[in-house]
Amino acid sequence: QVQLVESGGGVVQPGGSLRLSCAASGFTVSSYGMGWYRQAPGKQRELVAFSNTAGGITNYADFVKGRFTISRDNAKNTVYLQMNSLKSDDTAVYYCSAPRRGLRGQGTQVTVSS
Length: 114
Description:
mainly beta; seven-stranded mixed beta sheet; four-stranded antiparallel beta sheet
């Protein structure tokens, strides 16, 4: 089955960290650009970070630069999003995506609250 499954979300205090995982099955992530998106209540979905096919080129939204890092483990066929210095504005459902495959995971909730 071709799918993406996210995990690692949860509730964290401002300033805390979380690492999201996106496990792919049915295709090889090393052959595709992979991205993380998020959608907060009442807001449009927005790109958070993107990693090109080889993982050597990454792009980040301005609002996460210096705080979030996208990476991939090709041996595990998994993409990660390390999130540090979290803010309340980072509260959202985070989705993993393989745009060229037309795939998006079910999302994982991240809540930043004291």
